């Protein structure tokens, strides 16, 4: 192959990798809202208990941030610090960090494809949102605000 | 509040098996990945232009560098020394330090991909050299430019496939 064609192919490779990276980044840290009452995965019960995520710690009275990590996860410790801090700053919000390294069953049950993945549960243990990748502080706070808003709506009714 | 019953117990055993590696400035491995990505691109170019011997030699060198990172740890990689000597003094302090295990695992993945290319190349399958360099390039490029961690992703998928991380299900269940 002559050098010009080879160089073109090399540039195509760089372009493909760039598109892949942009696609990946655009999906990072976004919250996918799970509407209440819709079973979003087969076999998943409506309300989870701490045992369902392999945890002994209690869920929060208002919301729980369930973070899924592994030991080979560069961004999990930072996410853990962020979410633990947010949980401390809000009353009734708990943070659980679940290590999937030896819990293949949980990874499969919740369909975890990347770490960290964070589920946001409401006060009853229902999954209300799911964030793949490193969550941004604002996205999590927005979700927690939405949750407490809907709780108030229910109380007002 | 933070509870992590799932990871609190297996850790002491892991520490005994493998001494804890010091935490890294996360920009170090990304700097190394950028150099690796450029060199892998050179391998692809050489393979495409028919300079198959040069491509094979350069890919072997890169495989050896991946082996260094995978076995000595990402913190002892020669690119890491370059980073500490010439790049880090020009940057501000990092936001946070990172565990060295994920980038070390990623070096192992790079080693696997490039060694496959070298072995198949030596066996006479010349196209394997360029293909494996291209695959490794995508991973190194995504790591360097987008801070994507292929090692982390593959680790989780290997756990899900039951290849890694088995055997302590009952313990972690609690």
From TrEMBL, chain A:
CDD domains: TRX_family. This is Thioredoxin. It comes from Cryobacterium cheniae.
Automatic annotation (TrEMBL), chain B:
The chain crosses the membrane at residues 31-48, 54-74, 105-125, 131-158. Keywords: Membrane, Transmembrane, Transmembrane helix. The keyword Transmembrane applies. Residues 1-13 have a biased composition (Low complexity). The keyword DNA-binding does not apply. Residues 1-27 are annotated as: Disordered. Residues 25-160 form the DUF4395 domain. This is DUF4395 domain-containing protein. The lineage of its organism: Bacteria, Bacillati, Actinomycetota, Actinomycetes, Micrococcales.
């Amino acid at each position: 192959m002559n050098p010009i064609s080879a160089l073109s192919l090399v540039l195509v490779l760089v372009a493909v990798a760039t598109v892949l990276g942009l696609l990946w980044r655009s999906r990072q840290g976004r919250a996918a809202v799970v509407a209440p009452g819709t079973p979003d995965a087969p076999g998943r019960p409506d309300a989870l208990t701490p045992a369902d995520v392999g945890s002994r710690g209690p869920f929060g009275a208002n919301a729980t941030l369930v973070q899924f990590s592994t030991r080979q996860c560069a961004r999990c410790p930072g996410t853990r610090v962020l979410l633990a801090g947010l949980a401390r700053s809000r009353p009734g919000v708990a943070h659980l960090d679940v290590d999937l390294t030896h819990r293949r069953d949980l990874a499969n049950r919740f369909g975890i494809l990347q770490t960290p993945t964070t589920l946001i549960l409401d006060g009853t243990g229902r999954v209300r949102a799911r964030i793949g990748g490193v969550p941004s502080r604002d996205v999590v706070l927005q979700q927690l605000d939405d949750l407490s808003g809907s709780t108030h709506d229910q109380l007002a009714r | 509040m933070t509870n992590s019953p799932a990871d609190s117990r297996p850790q002491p055993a892991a520490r005994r098996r493998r001494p804890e590696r010091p935490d890294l400035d996360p920009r170090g491995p990304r700097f190394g990945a950028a150099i690796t990505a450029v060199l892998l691109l050179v391998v692809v170019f050489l393979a495409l232009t028919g300079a198959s011997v040069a491509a094979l030699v350069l890919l072997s060198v890169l495989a050896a560098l991946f082996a260094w990172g995978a076995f000595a740890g990402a913190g002892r990689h020669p690119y890491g020394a370059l980073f500490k000597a010439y790049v880090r003094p020009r940057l501000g302090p990092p936001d946070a330090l990172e565990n060295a295990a994920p980038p070390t695992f990623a070096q192992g993945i790079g080693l696997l991909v490039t060694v496959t290319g070298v072995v198949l190349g030596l066996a006479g399958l010349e196209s394997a050299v360029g293909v494996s360099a291209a695959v490794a390039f995508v991973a190194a490029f995504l790591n360097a430019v987008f801070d994507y961690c292929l090692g982390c992703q593959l680790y989780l998928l290997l756990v899900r496939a039951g290849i890694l991380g088995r055997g302590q299900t009952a313990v972690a269940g609690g």
